[in-house]
Automatic annotation (TrEMBL):
TM stretches of this protein: 45-61, 67-87, 237-257, 269-294, 689-710, 722-744, 765-786, 798-818, 830-853, 859-886
Organism: candidate division WWE3 bacterium
Name of the protein this chain belongs to: Cation-transporting P-type ATPase
InterPro entries on file: ATPase_P-typ_cation-transptr_C (IPR006068), ATPase_P-typ_cation-transptr_N (IPR004014), ATPase_P-typ_cyto_dom_N (IPR023299), ATPase_P-typ_P_site (IPR018303), ATPase_P-typ_TM_dom_sf (IPR023298), ATPase_P-typ_transduc_dom_A_sf (IPR008250), ATPase_P-type_domA (IPR059000), HAD-like_sf (IPR036412)
Keywords of the record: ATP-binding, Membrane, Nucleotide-binding, Translocase, Transmembrane, Transmembrane helix
Length: 902
C-alpha cells in the first residue's frame, strides 16, 4: 500500500460531512406522522361509514348518538395511527440494522465507518463481493471487475482500471492524472465488485452520485406480501358477508316495526352502518403489518435481520437447513495450533485472537534466526493476506478485520513479532482467493535483506493442501530448496489427514523467487514451506440447536469447503451422523443419483458454489423448503435459488447480503433455528388473530340477525343490541384483545411439530373452530337476553345490558381460548401473554364505566345491572368455556385437526 494513501484526518471528515451531508438517497415514500394520521381517514371505510351515521344522527336530533359516534371515529383513527406508527418504527429500526459499513483510510489507518458518513475525499478500500457505497475514482486496482447491472441493466461484468496519476498530493487535492478519468476509471454507487480489489477516492456522495441522479426514476412502491394477500382475501369475503347481514337485519327491523316513520328508518340506517362497521375487518392489514414488523424486530433482537418481510411466512415451513461450517457451526475465530515445516511438527501456544504465545518444538521456544522455513512461512502468511488486525487492549488481544483464517495467520505472525506493517515493499500483482481455485498468490517486490539495493521479486502463496502441493516442485529443508520427494509428499498427506481427523483445518504455505518482475507470473513451480493446522471448535449452543431443529422435523445438512476428514470430525462433535459427500463425488453423480445420495447425506465436503446451487435445486425438486447459508460472491446464485437465502453479517460479502432474505448478525447456526421458531410463531399469531376476529364478528352478526327474527315471537324490542353498543364491543372488546393476540409468545411446543406444508391462514378445521365459537357466543348472548327478559321479567334495558355484558365476557374468554387451538383454556395460565391480560382489563374497566357511570349509561343505553344479570352473564360464559375446552379435547383426538392447527 503506497504511503501517501493516508486518507482524510478525522477532523477533515467531520468538516466535510457538515458540508456535504449524509451519503444517502432521498426516500421518496418516507412516511411522516401527519401522513400516517391522514391515511387513517383517507383510506378507512369504517371512518366514512361512521361519519355518515354521526351526521345522520345529528340531523334527526339524536345529538348524543351523533357525538358519541364522532368520539368513536376519533378512537378508530387513534388506534389505527398507533398501530401503523409502531409498524413504521419497527421497519425503520430494521433498516438501520441493515446500514452498510465501509472500510476507508482515516489518519493513515484502515477504519470501519457507516457508509452514510462517507464524504468526498475519503479513500475507500474495496474488495471482492463489496457493494460500492459512493461514486469514486480508482487510484490503484488489481484485476478489478464490477457488476453494474443495478445501474445499467447489463448483467455482464465490466473491467475497471486505475488511471496513471501522480498520487503525491492525494490528501491535499485532486490527484494529478495524465488524462481525464472516464467510466472505466470510475466506480459508481450501488454496483458490486465481483473480482479483485482497489483503492478509490470518493468524488460524489448521496444524491450527487450517478445513482442518486436517476433515483427519482426508480419505483419504490411496495409489493403486496403473499401473507398480506391471504389476509386481504379473507377481509373481502367478510365485507360481503357484513353487507348482506346488515341489509338483511335492517330490512327485517323495518319490516317488523309497527309504524314505519323517519325515526325507524334512521335507526335502521344507523344499525346497518354499525353492523357493517363491526364486521368489516378494517384492522386486518394494519395488524398484519404490525405483527410482521414487531416479529421481525424480535428476530433482530435474536441476531437475525429480515431483509425481506415476505420471507417470514416461508420460515415456518422450512424443512431443510443447508448451513456452512466455518463461523456458523463453528465459532469462526480460528487459531493456528500446529505447524509442519522442515519435516518437523511445531506447536503454537495461545487461543483466539490474542497475541500471547510462542512457537515451540518439543516444548521449547524456537529461534527464528535458526529456522528459515518457519521465518519464510510466517512472512508468506502475513504478506499473502487480505485481513488486518488491530490491538484492542494491553494484553495483546486483537480485533480482526477480514476472514477468520487470514486473521489467525496474522495473529500467528504477531506471536513471532512479525507484522504486515514491517513489509515496506509493494504488492506488484495478486491472484485472489476464490472458492474454485482454493488458493491465493501475491507478487511482493522489495530490496533484498543483505543490505544492498538489489530488488527481490517473491511470490508468496497459500491454499488448500491438495491444490497447492500439486503446484510445488521443491521443498525447503535445512534452509535449502530440494526436490519434493514422493516420500515427503506421502508423509505430508498422512500428517494432513491426521490433523483433519481431529477437526483441524489445514492450509499449505509456499513461495518462489522470480528472476525479474513479472506481473503475469504463473502459479506453478513453488517451493513448499509447510502446513498450518487451524482450530475452530463448534459453538456450544449448536448441538442443542440441531436437536431442536430435528425434533421440529427439519433436516440439517452441513456444507463446507474443508476436506472430508475435517468435515467428518466436526460433524461427529455436533451429532450429524449421516453420509458424507465430497465435491468430486458430486461431479461424478447424475442428478438422479445425486438426488438419492442427498437424502442420506448430512455432510458435504470440498463443495463449490456450483455444488451448492445444484444441491438446492435437487432438494427443491423433492418438495423440500430449503434454507441455505452463504457468504461469498459466488454463493449468490444458491442463496437466490433457495426458498430462504441466509447471509452472514460478520463475514459475508455485500453481494451475498443483498441477495439473501435474512442476515445473521452473529453468523450463528442457532440463530437460524430461533428464526424458524419465530417465523412459526408469527404465522400462528396471525392465524389466531384472524380467527378470533372472525369468530367475534360472526357472533355479533348472528346476535343482531337472530334477535330481529325472534323478536316478534318473544316480544323483544329490536335491535337486540343498540348500534352504539355494537360499536363499543367492536372497538374495545374485539380489536384491542385481537391486536394483543398478534403478540402472543411462542408456545413451548412450537418446535416439537413437523413443518406445515404451504398452509393457508384458514383451513377446514380452523373454519370449524370459528363457526362453532361464533355460534356458541351468539346463542348464549340470545339466551342471556331471554333469561333476563322472558324468565326473570326484567326490563328491555336490563335484558339488553345483560346480553351486552355476557357477549363482552365471552369474547374476552374467547381471546384467551384462541391463544391455542389445542391447549385447554382452563388448564393454561392467563399470564403467558401479559399484553392480552392488560387489554382484557381495559375492556372490563370500559364495560364497568358504561354500565355504572350515569353519563355513560345515557350515551350507551345501559343500566346498572345487579347480581341476577351478573350471575347470568358469568354462568353462561363459564358454560361456554367448558364447551370450548370439551370441543378441543375431542378435536385433539383427530389427526386431521392436529395437522390443520399446527
Amino acid at each position: 500500500m503506497p504511503k501517501n494513501f493516508t486518507g482524510l484526518s478525522s477532523q477533515e471528515a467531520k468538516d466535510l460531512l457538515k458540508q456535504y451531508g449524509l451519503n444517502e438517497l432521498e426516500e421518496r415514500n418516507k412516511v411522516t406522522k401527519l401522513q400516517i394520521l391522514l391515511r387513517q381517514i383517507k383510506s378507512n371505510f369504517m371512518v366514512y361509514m361512521l361519519f355518515i351515521a354521526a351526521v345522520t344522527s345529528l340531523l334527526v336530533g339524536k345529538d348524543i348518538t351523533g357525538y358519541t359516534i364522532f368520539a368513536v371515529i376519533i378512537c378508530v383513527i387513534a388506534v389505527g395511527f398507533v398501530q401503523e406508527y409502531k409498524a413504521e418504527e419497527a421497519v425503520g429500526s430494521l433498516k438501520k440494522m441493515l446500514m452498510p459499513i465501509s472500510i476507508v483510510m482515516r489518519d493513515g489507518h484502515k477504519v470501519e465507518v457507516p457508509s452514510e458518513e462517507l464524504v468526498p475525499g475519503d479513500i475507500l478500500v474495496l474488495g471482492n463481493g463489496e457493494k460500492i457505497p459512493a461514486d469514486a475514482l480508482i487510484l490503484q486496482s488489481r484485476d478489478l471487475r464490477v457488476n453494474e447491472a443495478a445501474l445499467t441493466g447489463e448483467a455482464k461484468d465490466v473491467s475497471k482500471t486505475a488511471l496513471e496519476c501522480d498520487l503525491k498530493e492525494l490528501t491535499n487535492g485532486e490527484p494529478n492524472c495524465e488524462e481525464e478519468p472516464d467510466e472505466k476509471n470510475t466506480l459508481f454507487m450501488g454496483t458490486y465488485i465481483v473480482n479483485g480489489k482497489c483503492f478509490a477516492k470518493v468524488i460524489h456522495t448521496g444524491m450527487n452520485t450517478k445513482f442518486g441522479q436517476i433515483a427519482h426514476l426508480i419505483s419504490s412502491a411496495e409489493k403486496e406480501l403473499p401473507l398480506q394477500k391471504k389476509v386481504n382475501d379473507i377481509a373481502k369475503v367478510m365485507v360481503v358477508i357484513s353487507i348482506v347481514f346488515s341489509v338483511l337485519t335492517a330490512g327485517l327491523m323495518v319490516f317488523n316495526a309497527p309504524v314505519i316513520n323517519n325515526s325507524v328508518l334512521v335507526d335502521a340506517l344507523i344499525l346497518m352502518i354499525a353492523i357493517s362497521v363491526s364486521a368489516f375487518p378494517e384492522g386486518f392489514p394494519v395488524v398484519l403489518i404490525t405483527t410482521l414488523a414487531l416479529g421481525a424486530k424480535r428476530m433482530s433482537d435474536k441476531k437475525v435481520v429480515v431483509n425481506r418481510m415476505s420471507i417470514i411466512e416461508t420460515l415456518g415451513e422450512t424443512t431443510v437447513i443447508c448451513t456452512d461450517k466455518t463461523g456458523t457451526i463453528t465459532r469462526g475465530e480460528m487459531t493456528v495450533k500446529f505447524i509442519f515445516a522442515d519435516n518437523t511438527l511445531y506447536e503454537v501456544e495461545g487461543a483466539g485472537y490474542i497475541g500471547h504465545g510462542k512457537i515451540t518444538k518439543e516444548g521449547k521456544p524456537i529461534d527464528l534466526a535458526n529456522s528459515k522455513a518457519i521465518k519464510l512461512l510466517l512472512d508468506s502468511s502475513v504478506v499473502c493476506n487480505d485481513a488486518q488486525i488491530e490491538r484492542t487492549g494491553d494484553d495483546h488481544e486483537f480485533r480482526a478485520l477480514g476472514t477468520p483464517t487470514e486473521a489467525a495467520l496474522l495473529v500467528l505472525g504477531a506471536k513471532a513479532g512479525i507484522y504486515k506493517e514491517d513489509f515496506t515493499g509493494e504488492i506488484g500483482s495478486e491472484y485472489p482467493f476464490n472458492s474454485e481455485r482454493k488458493m491465493m498468490s501475491v507478487l511482493y517486490t522489495t530490496s533484498s535483506e543483505n543490505g544492498n539495493n538489489n530488488v527481490e521479486n517473491i511470490v508468496y502463496t497459500k491454499g488448500a493442501p491438495e491444490i497447492l502441493l500439486e503446484k510445488c516442485t521443491k521443498v525447503l529443508k535445512d534452509g535449502k530448496e530440494v526436490d519434493f520427494s514422493p516420500e515427503l509428499r506421502a508423509k505430508l498427506e498422512e500428517m494432513q489427514q491426521e490433523m483433519a481427523k481431529h477437526a483441524y483445518r489445514t492450509l499449505a504455505i509456499g513461495y518462489k523467487r522470480l528472476d525479474s518482475f513479472d506481473r503475469d507470473y504463473k502459479e506453478e513451480d513453488f517451493v513448499f514451506l509447510g502446513v498450518v493446522a487451524l482450530e475452530d471448535s463448534p459453538r456450544e449452543e449448536v448441538i442443542g440447536a440441531i436437536k431442536i431443529a430435528e425434533k421440529a422435523g427439519i433436516k440439517i445438512k452441513m456444507i463446507t469447503g474443508d476436506n472430508k476428514e475435517t468435515a467428518a470430525a466436526i460433524a461427529r462433535q455436533i451429532g450429524l451422523t449421516g453420509d458424507i459427500l465430497v465435491g468430486k463425488e458430486i461431479n461424478e453423480l447424475s442428478d438422479e443419483e445425486l438426488s438419492i445420495a442427498i437424502k442420506k447425506a448430512q455432510v458435504f465436503a470440498r463443495v463449490t458454489p456450483e455444488h451448492k446451487l445444484r444441491i438446492v435445486k435437487l432438494l427443491k425438486s423433492h418438495e423440500e423448503i430449503v434454507a441455505m447459508t452463504g457468504d461469498g460472491v459466488n454463493d449468490a446464485p444458491a442463496l437466490k435459488e433457495a426458498h430462504i437465502g441466509i447471509a452472514m453479517g460478520k463475514t459475508g460479502t455485500d453481494v451475498s447480503r443483498a441477495t439473501a432474505d435474512l442476515t445473521l448478525k452473529d453468523d450463528n447456526f442457532s440463530s437460524i433455528v430461533e428464526a424458524v421458531a419465530e417465523g412459526r410463531t408469527i404465522f400462528n399469531n396471525i392465524r389466531k388473530f384472524v380467527s378470533y376476529q372472525l369468530a367475534a364478528n360472526i357472533a355479533e352478526l348472528l346476535v343482531l340477525l337472530a334477535g330481529v327474527v325472534m323478536a316478534p315471537k318473544l316480544g323483544w324490542d329490536t335491535p337486540l343490541l343498540l348500534s352504539i353498543q355494537i360499536l363499543f364491543v367492536n372497538l374495545v372488546t374485539d380489536n384491542i384483545p385481537a391486536i394483543m393476540l398478534g403478540l402472543n409468545p411462542a408456545s413451548t411446543d412450537i418446535m416439537l411439530e413437523t413443518p406445515r406444508e404451504n398452509a393457508g391462514i384458514l383451513n377446514e378445521s380452523v373454519y370449524l373452530i370459528i363457526a362453532v365459537s361464533g355460534g356458541i357466543m351468539a346463542l348464549f348472548t340470545l339466551m342471556a337476553y331471554y333469561l333476563d327478559f322472558n324468565v326473570f321479567g326484567q326490563s328491555v334495558e336490563f335484558a339488553r345490558t345483560t346480553a351486552l355484558l355476557a357477549l363482552i365476557i365471552m369474547e374476552i374468554i374467547a381471546a384467551f381460548a384462541f391463544r391455542s387451538f389445542r391447549k385447554l383454556v382452563l388448564t393454561r395460565s392467563p399470564f403467558v401473554n401479559m399484553s392480552l391480560v392488560w387489554a382484557s382489563l381495559i375492556s372490563v374497566v370500559a364495560t364497568l364505566i358504561i354500565m355504572y357511570i350515569k353519563p355513560a349509561q345515557v350515551i350507551f343505553g345501559t343500566v346498572a345491572v345487579g347480581l341476577t344479570s351478573w350471575s347470568i352473564a358469568l354462568g353462561i360464559s363459564l358454560v361456554m368455556t367448558v364447551l370450548l375446552d370439551v370441543g378441543k379435547f375431542f378435536a385433539n383426538k383427530s389427526r386431521r385437526y392436529v395437522q390443520d392447527t399446527r
